Fold each of these.
Amino acid sequence: VKDRITTYGVIGKLAISLVAVVVIQGILAYRIRVFGYFDLPLILSIYYGFTLGRPVPSVIIGTSIGLLQDSLSGVPMGTNGFSKTLIGYLAATAGSKFDVDLPVTRAIAIFLFTIGDGFIISILGLMTGSSINLGYNVLWNWLVAGVFNALLGTLMFGYRDRVSHAAS
Amino acid sequence: MRTVIDSKKPAWITLAVALVFNTLLLSLQTNKHFDTSFVRVWLLASLGPFEKVVDAGVQGVENIWTGYIALIHVRRDNEKLLAENGQLRMQLSEKSEEALELGRLRHLMDLRATPIGKTVVARVIGKDPSQGGQNITIDKGTKSGIRKDVTIITSDGVVGRVISSSEYFSVVQLIIDSQSAVGFIVRSSRRLGILKGTGGSELEMAFIDDDNDIKQGDELITSGQDQIYPKGIPLGTVLSVGPRQGNFKVVRIRPNVNFGRLEEVLCMTDHLPEVPVGQAP
């Protein structure tokens, strides 16, 4: 019974963090214009992939957060779901094979995952008949978003590491 | 649940299942064989209240801050507003005379007034959480009569259209979104065309192969020919014409609405049928 309560507690906390991240992303992007470049759901998918190091829960987290993101977006349902699933899986695989505790490794990984996310969403957009611009502006936006996400992600991961160390 | 998460089975099976699930969802929406909007509506209904609560908190803090700052300048602002008020009263009396005259002329010519119809005021509570997305969430839904394709406006012009609604919340696609297209008329030359969103802060005219009757500064209004936006609502102003890229000219438009400062919007829940071409204001 104790085990079951702990499991439900973990799932509950996880669900709250997923909803909170999508809602906070929506509110901050509306209130602070520059926040449109950040992608908190993507950073969270990578974070869980890296820290859990297990592909199965990372895939489930990626799909869930992607679908939540899709519900508040104009893109077809499943677009971010597909992309975040793949990123969750790749982050978990990378987390179990490489040393992702180094800030530089994390920053580079988040940057590359951001570019990959943009690319997958654009390809899916083209496949579903959406008019996606793939011009210079879009590439520039991906690069800027990559740098912003890498900086924010590295800071957040570092803060989380400190809290975890202090608790243990 | 734990057994699934801790399963020793190859992870790629989970990955494949998740990818197939998302692909199926995408495919069903693209082919329109099966209505998947209930998934979006259900998720929107679940996320909307959280978004509204967080937004209310942020708004509260913002109000305290701006209220305090405003008090410092309130006396100076009050004097300025009183002076402006006097000028506006004079202008209003002139305009009311003109409005009466216009009404008489409309009556004489048997024309209807601009069809705005029933509107509902909604508050913007959030923005698209996807990278580069140009959609907003508003705090009104089907309970207030808002359904898919309802036009959203402000006093400046067209904001966009509703793409999904739950009972109390709706997602609005802005006209600047890269998926958006709006039929327009150039107010002066009456030329018809289609405006497309760029995903940035501007709009672009689609399929313009000549620029003889489109000039910088021309004002554009909705044409009503897209069967979504009612006719005669201001859209924007021509920012620049040309150069030609491929077969078509690039015509950039600055929208009338400042999308960075949207707070309250009007939802046209019951606009009257469009008026024939040539009768727009």
Amino acid sequence: MSSPTPTQGQYVFLPWIQRGLSSFIINPNPGASLPTRAPLSVQLQFNSTTAAGTPDTASVTANLYGPGDVVGFSPDHVVRTEPLDLTTNFESNYFAGIEFDQPDFPWLFTPAAPNQDQLIPWVSLIVLADDGSEFTDSKLSPNPLPSININASTPLQDLSESWNWAHAQISGPMPADLAGELTNNPHIAISRLICPRLLNPDTAYRAFVVPTFDAGRNAGLGLPNTGAELNFAWDTSRTGTLLLPYYYVFRFHTSDAGDFESLVRRLTPIPSASVSGVGERAMNITNPGLGIPENSSEPPVQLGGALQTTNPPNTAWADPAGLQNQLATLASSSTDGGADPNPSTTPDPTIGPPLYGRWYAGVNTVKVGDTGWMADENLDPRRRVASGFGTLVILQNLSAFLRGAWAQFSQLKGVNYFLRRCQACRRTLQGVYQASFTVADAPTLLAWTQPVQARILTGSQTVASVVQSSTLPARTLSAAFRRLLRPYGPICQRGDPTPPYSPYGIVPKLNNGTIAVAPPSGAMSGFGAY
Amino acid sequence: LAQFKNMSDGDKLAAQAFQPFNAGKIFGSSAITPGTASPMTLTYQTYYIDDPLMPTIRPGQLYTPQLSTMMSNVRQSSAAQARANNSGPLKYVNPGTTNPVALNDPQYVVVNLSDLSTITITGPTSQGYAQAALDAHLSANPDDAGTMAVLPTYEAAS
């Protein structure tokens, strides 16, 4: 029985997600040694068959990319760090974490199948005190990744338990079609790495995303990967300095004491009635301009803002002076002069205040009392302010918006190029058609078009089929016969050159039986030879 | 390893100068395999900052947003603003949408030359595969020679 769809907001946490061919990896981990790359046996079946009648096949072992093939990732995949980079007062009783936009990111290059709900991520998050006591920046140039030297005494988490510290999160209920939901709404799923280190108060830290496996460490340091088996990048019993590359880094400082709750408790509430102007701004509309008469008695309207109190002020506006009627008249009177062949007699175009949303809504006028958003948007001075700001944003980013819109038709250029070539071909062929085909008589056309008659329908049959079912001998339209009747061939040169001369005048005569093809010379059937 | 085909002079004249053939094979999977799901209802705890001089306000119940409210907020989340999905051309494209304009290779079928009706020897495919299917058919049915041809789907009778 399927569970009902919840109506309350919920998160779904997943211990791992594998996508694509990674779903077909068979070696489980933890629990088995790992290759540096996950092998997949791929079988290709051909259309041909063997002597026994079975399809020909070929098998090949394909290796998926492993952690040793990765030398970095785009920081664009990081959607959030906890805390934010350069935070100065992170609560020390929280764990640091990092979130990625791809829900399968932590297991993307893990060459292993999950062991129940345990799957080692190919990256881990470590947090180290940034006071020189736990690590130093490596003096090596990034090759290709920057690196750090971690002191021997610095505690690092046990990587054999690193599956505990990575998970995926889905906002909302678990989709029945997870693949389809992630395609259409990728923002509902993220993945997260957590560093299981208890932080000290008032301490500077640096958090690093580092490789979990030694193959990733070697790749990040520019060292060759020679081993066939995958090992962890460090173990808890290490005794020496550890040189470790990192993919991503962020810094923060823990607060001396307390967390968000303690800071909130230090705030002093103030009744909204005791402060004025929060969430609103008075706007003077006594002189709107645009030819509207000035009205010094018009009270200011209250322009709302993004910040609102729990007891927002009453911002109703009665429009005592009928400003909306005048705005409606002005905004609806704008005309584009159109084609103006005679400027002396055509009135000049009228330019009024913009009618916001006119192109989207498809209307050119608005009046007081209209229902819908157009009247609200255009006849309330406060809403016109917001619309004006929106227009500015559009104008400032016009090129980027247009570029983005055209980018959605990225193949349009190729399509248009192909279309132009086809148009050029069509135009050329039209010239040939006009010069040769339109002046030719029907028998000549029938002969000329023989090569394509099997591809042209006349009714439900092709022309070739109609010719074949007629009394016209098939060889009348053959290539050899056409060669005989070519304009400068031996027969035409002996014919009457007076126009209209058609060498194919023989075709209708053959068709209606006026003339007949002579039978092959030789012995006739039924007669003896002499 | 290459494969060659013997062609008569007529075949060479009738064949197109260039034909696209598959070079290599791409394979993949759209499968997604998740671990065991652990749902958790989202709740917010409300604290009242008491005024020391006023009577204490009792904490209210946990606030649980409606699913629709939560999903609306998720559309503004950091994941929805991820630069990998919101930079460059992707900034203006809804996820899951495909390019509305595409230039695809023509597909070919085997047709009957008397009425251009499609013969189901093979489905719409590349010219090379359609010709190979027709050749295989004609070798098994030599009486059909001259009555069938490979044509683009747009030339076949619908």
